[in-house]
Amino acid sequence: MQKLPAILESLDGDTKKYVMEWADIVRAKHSSDNDFDSDDDNNPIYYGDPLLIIEWNETGLAQRNIQKNIVLTYIRSFQGCNPFPGSGQPQSNSLFYIVNTPGIRAQQTICNIIYGLQRMYAQRNVPSLGRIYSVVAEKKNTFEAAEILGAFAL
Questions:
Q1: How many domains are there within the chain?
Q2: Has residue 129 been placed in a domain?
Q3: Going by C-beta distance under 8 Å and a sequence separation of 6 or more, which residues neighbour residue 117?
Q4: Contact 40, 31 (CB under 8 A)
């Protein structure tokens, strides 16, 4: 996966680097699945393992008197939600690698996280705490990104 989706171009350099590292990990994880490395473009494969990205609004956090660590603790409390990058590197406060767990698919975990964030932090006429993106490897050498609206402000 060589190029970031345009929606992610506003992210800082380290976050972009980690997104590309995540893409390599997903590719390696699924390299033996379903003839992953074949050149058959007519055989799309959904890889799963989405990445949740938060682009924090530090000013909004300060104005609303919300501590980022409390939000991070909530997000990290979900089974299947792993800080990224993993061991050997400092963990990012912006990236979360979501994996399937018994009985709960990764996409459901993202929905559950967003629902909880909305209930706790989504308010009208207040500064947003940031922007949230979900990035998914859809098929070989491509990934899709979408902004999730309404989690931190309405």
A1: 1
A2: yes
A3: 71, 74, 75, 132, 151, 152
A4: no
Q: Contact, 54 vs 130, CB < 8 A? A: yes
Q: What is the pLDDT of residues 17-35, one digit of tens each?
A: 888 888 777 777 766 655 5
In a domain, 112, yes or no: yes
Q: Token pair 């603790």 is at which residue?
A: 73
Q: Is the pTM of this model over 0.85?
A: no
Residues 63 and 51 sit within 8 Å (Cβ to Cβ): no
Which DSSP string corresponds to 62-102? HHTT--HHHHHHHHHTSTTEEESS-TTSPPPSSEEEE--BT
- Please name which of 148, 152, 147 lies closest in space to residue 6, comparing C-alpha atoms: 147
Domain containing 108 equals 6-148
